[in-house]
Amino acid sequence: MAIIASIYLAQRPYPADPTQLPNFGTPQEWKHINSVAGSYELFDFLRANAGRKVRLSVGFEMNAFNDPLPGRLTVPGPDCAGTDPNCLSGINLTVNDVSEQRPGLSFQHGEYVLTGYFADLGSLGVWTGTEVLAITPLTAVEAVS
Q1: Contacting residues for 115 by C-beta, under 8 A, at least 6 apart
Q2: What is the mean predicted confidence (pLDDT) over 60-65?
Q3: Helices (H), the chain
Q4: pLDDT-above-70 percentage for the chain
């Protein structure tokens, strides 16, 4: 009986690789975003992978953060001129629960950097013309489970 079980187990297909997650950028080289178009590339990636665990390695120039609150990135919509704070169009990326246990958003080399594994919560809705996307950094245990 043990021989039959070992033959069966040896012939079964391998399970899917749980380490294969959607990636945006690489850990060795951040994807540097310094334009509205580049930001929208990230937002399209997040919309496409809503509800999944994702790995991000992204650097944003300082002026990309229009919102004075920590953990929020506001990018103007394509119909806004520059970074007009009165423009009621665009996308807001909220990074929830950043802490020592949940690193993910930091300031390095003159850029705000999103690195690591995140729970992509997707779009939370649109308020006054601004869509809100949300991500939450994962702890080391959550990232591998």
Answers
A1: 27, 30, 56, 57, 58, 103, 104, 106
A2: 66
A3: 2-11, 36-48, 140-144
A4: 70
Specify the pTM. 0.76
Q: Which of 80, 108, 114, 76 is nearest to 95 (CA)?
A: 114
Q: Could you tell me which residues come within 8 angstroms of residue 70 by beta carbon, excluding any fewer than 6 positions away? A: 98, 105
Instruction: State the DSSP code for 63.
Output: G
Question: What pLDDT was estimated at residue 19?
Answer: 58
* Phi, psi for residue 43 in degrees, rounded to 5: -65, -40
Spatial separation of the C-alpha atoms in residues 125 and 84, rounded to whole Å: 22
List the one residue out of 68, 50, 137, 60 whose CA is nearest residue 99.
137
What is the spatial distance between Cα 113 and Cα 10, in angstroms, rounded to a whole number? 44
CA distance 76 to 91: 7
